[in-house]
């Protein structure tokens, strides 16, 4: 009995040390001190916390495809890229707790936002973006991956 309990304790401690790197999973505890990183050419262009994202110009978009809130509010993804100093954007990859999604520059021309959530994170959402391509708890935007 003791050896089984000891193994479980060690496995639990190992899982805490490894954290979100396993399978790209993001847990609630990982979101404490939430921030979004913008990368290009292998380097960090900028990092945004929630107050900084709220300081950017905000828009509201209608998203009837949403299973929840039919209106999303937050900064346009293009304005976040501009604030980060991204240049020559052809496509971007958005990573978070859902499978990563790649969008073309043409798709960014549509109304695509990083919408604020009740979990104090942002999610990728868009007027013409299929719900299956939304990404919850966005942690990274990579320019021209």
Automatic annotation (TrEMBL):
The source's superkingdom equals Bacteria
Keywords attached to this entry: Signal
Show which residues constitute the signal peptide: 1-23
* The protein, known as: Uncharacterized protein
């Amino acid at each position: 009995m003791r050896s089984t309990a000891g193994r479980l304790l060690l496995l639990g401690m190992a899982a805490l040390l490894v954290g979100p790197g396993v399978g790209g999973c993001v847990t609630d505890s990982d979101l404490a001190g939430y921030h979004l990183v913008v990368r290009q050419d292998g380097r960090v262009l900028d990092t945004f916390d929630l107050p900084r994202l709220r300081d950017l110009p905000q828009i509201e978009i209608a998203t009837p495809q949403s299973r929840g809130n039919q209106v999303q509010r937050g900064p346009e993804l293009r304005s976040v890229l501009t604030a980060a100093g991204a240049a020559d954007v052809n496509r971007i990859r958005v990573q978070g707790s859902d499978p990563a999604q790649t969008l073309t520059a043409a798709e960014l021309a549509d109304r695509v936002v990083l919408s604020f959530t009740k979990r104090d994170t942002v999610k990728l959402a868009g007027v013409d973006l299929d719900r299956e391509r939304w990404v919850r708890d966005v942690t990274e935007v990579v320019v021209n991956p």
